[in-house]
Amino acid sequence: MILAAQLSDTHFDLSARNTERVEAVMGYLADLPRRPDVILVTGDITDSGTPEQYAQARTALRADIPVYLLPGNHDDRANFRTDLLGVPAATTPINSVHRVGALTVILLDSSVPGEPAGLLGEDTFDWLLAALADAPADGPVLIALHHPPKPLFSPVVDVIALADPGRLAAVVSADPRVIGVLTGHAHSPVATTFAGKPMITCPSTASVLGGAWEVAPPHRVMDYAPDPAIALHVIDESFSLTTHFRTVAMGGWLAEPPA
Ligand SMILES: [Fe+2]
Ligand SMILES: [Fe+2]
To answer: Residues 116-163: pLDDT tens digits?
Structure first.
C-alpha cells in the first residue's frame, strides 16, 4: 500500500492564520502511526506569488517525507522556483515526475501567467507524453494539476477551470496505467470521474468555496470558518485508488466523546 497525502490551496499570504493551519496539517501527518509516503501540494501555494510568501511556505511545508509541489493561478513561476524549490528562476512551466515505490506521480503546471483560468500548453503536453513513455510499463500513474479539467458545479471555479480539457482526457483514457487525476483550485473536496477515471479535487487548507447550491455573491462565497482539510490517497496492490478526506481540527485530537 502506498499512502499519498494531498494538500492544496495553502494560499500563504504572510498571515499567521494560513501558516498555522498548514503547520497543524503537517503536524497531523507527522504524527500518524502510518505516515504518508509522499505529500503532494497542488497549487495556489501562495496568495500572490511574492518571495516572502514562498519563504513562509518553504518553512511550513518542510518535512522528512518527500514533498512535491505544483503551481496554481495565484503562484509565480520564477519566485516559485527560486524561493520555494531553490532552483534558478525561469518562467517555463513547472512540470515534474516522481517515483513513489511502484507509483509514478506526474505533476503538471496548468497555470497561465497573469490568468486565473488554466491551460496545459504544447510544451507541457510534449513533456507529459515523454514522462509517460519513461514511466514503468506495469506501474500505476497519478496525474496532478491545479485546475479541474471539468465543471464541478462550482460557480466561481467553473468559469476559470482548465481550458481544452479534451486533450488531457484523450491521454488519460488511452493509458491504462493512469489510475486517477488529482486537482486543487476548487477549495472543496470533490469526487467525480474524468475520461473514465477517478478525479479527486482536494480541499484547501485555507478556506472553503461553496457549490452552486451554497454560493450567493457578494456576501456568501468563501467560508473561512471551517478547519483545514486534506485528502489521503491509498493506492493498493491492485492499483486501485481510494481517497479519504480529512479535516484537521485546529483544536487538536479528541480521543473521548465530549461530556
Ligand atoms: Fe486557491
Ligand atoms: Fe486556484
So the answer is: 999 999 999 999 999 999 999 999 999 999 999 999 999 999 999 999
Total tally of structural domains belonging to the chain: 1
Is the distance from CB of 197 to CB of 179 less than 8 angstroms?
Answer: yes
Cell numbers standing for residue 78: 520564477
The ligand whose atoms approach the alpha carbon of 157 most closely is 2
What is the CA(160)–ligand 2 centre distance, in A? Answer: 8
Whether omega for the bond prior to residue 203 falls within 30 degrees of 0, making it cis, is no
Q: What is the CATH number of the domain that holds 241?
A: 3.60.21.10
Pairwise CA distance, residues 162 & 208, whole Å: 20
- pLDDT of 253 above 90: no
Tell me the residue range of the domain where 240 lies.
2-247
Residue 168 is assigned to a structural domain of this protein: yes
Q: Ligand 2 center to residue 255 CA distance, Å?
A: 35
Q: What is the pTM of this model?
A: 0.97
Q: Would you call 149 helix, strand, or coil by DSSP? A: coil
**What pLDDT score was predicted for residue 149?**
98
Give distance in angstroms: CA of 238 to centre of ligand 2.
32
